[in-house]
Amino acid sequence: MEKHLDISKALRVYNIVTSNGIKKQEKYQYQGLSAWGAVDGYTVHLSDETVTLSIYFHNKFEIEHKNSKQLDAFIKKLGIIDSKAC
């Protein structure tokens, strides 16, 4: 499923979360997602309760999850938030 992750969509969702979310400490919270950026300005993170997506320079990415069901739910959540913004 990781190969089906749309990084452009994930970056749009990151922007939605940081624009519309509530900032708590260093993270923005919005509709069940947290978003934060690294000090370098090139790395961003999106997470829910079970999955963390890290996007690096040149759209390289890493996903931390325990099973494919969690990943599928996370990707679906990205799609829902992205579609509401359009």
Describe the structure.
- The protein is of the alpha+beta class and 86 residues long.
- It has a single domain, classed as TATA-Binding Protein, CATH 3.30.310.
- Helices cover 37% and strands 28% of the residues.
- It has 2 helices and 6 strands, in the order αββββββα.
- The chain has a 6-stranded antiparallel sheet, covered by helices on one side.
- β3 and β4 form a beta hairpin.
- α1 packs across α2.
- It starts with 6 loop residues before the first helix and ends with a helix.
The CATH architecture comes to 2-Layer Sandwich
**How many domains make up the 3D coordinates?**
1
Average pLDDT rating: 93
- The amount of helix comes to 25-40%
Number of helices: 2
Q: Please provide the ordered H/E string of secondary-structure elements.
A: HEEEEEEH
Question: Whole-Å distance between the termini?
Answer: 24 Å
Main beta sheet strand tally, sense and closure:
6 strands, antiparallel
Task: Give the strand order of the largest sheet, numbering strands 1, 2, ... along the chain.
Answer: 1-2-3-4-5-6
Cα-atom Rg, whole angstroms?
12 Å
CATH topology: TATA-Binding Protein
The secondary structure category is alpha+beta
- Count the strands? 6
Q: How much of the polypeptide forms β-strand, as a percent range?
A: 25-35%
Shape summary: globular
The unreliable regions are none
List the topology elements.
Elements lengths: L6 H14 L1 E3 L2 E4 L2 E5 L6 E4 L4 E4 L5 E4 L3 H18 L1
Antiparallel strand pairs: 1-2, 2-3, 3-4, 4-5, 5-6
Helix pairs in contact: 1-2
